[in-house]
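User: quick one, fold this
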Amino acid sequence: MKISINSLQESDAEKLLEFEKNNRQFFEQMVPSRGEDYYNFETFQLKHRELLAEQEEEKSRFYLIRDNAGNIIGRINLVDIDTTNNIAEVGYRIGKEYGGKGIGAKALKLLLETEISVKKIKAKTTTNNIASQRVLEKNGFKQVCIDDDEFEMNGQKLQFIDYLLEL
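Assistant:
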């Protein structure tokens, strides 16, 4: 499947909220819930505008992953951009029906081809998120450590795994 990544725009709010609602249960199996209020359109729109302001200030870059028809199938973000130390952190989420198709790896590759303002990119995933670990490793990220602290999510004891890519 051919995909593209496009910078987040104000006009994306409604479709993005729909994507988030449609995939909420799936996402919450791997990451903590964003809370009920997040899915209220007024709250979502406020948070959306905050992201756009952060992007405008070049502190972060937010992209939507789209299929050939222009449908939102995921998100990928570069956040906490530190131009002094040339480092940032990457995060992504792919919709449930698109998982296992290599879309996360393709989107990360596209981001890395687009993003040349930093020399190091950090990432973090959980010990149970094997798909995310594969996406990172396929794109050259190296595992740095597994955090000592355990936490419980959805009845499972988990730890975070930290990754780093040096460009």
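User: anything notable?
Assistant: The longest helix spans residues 41-56.
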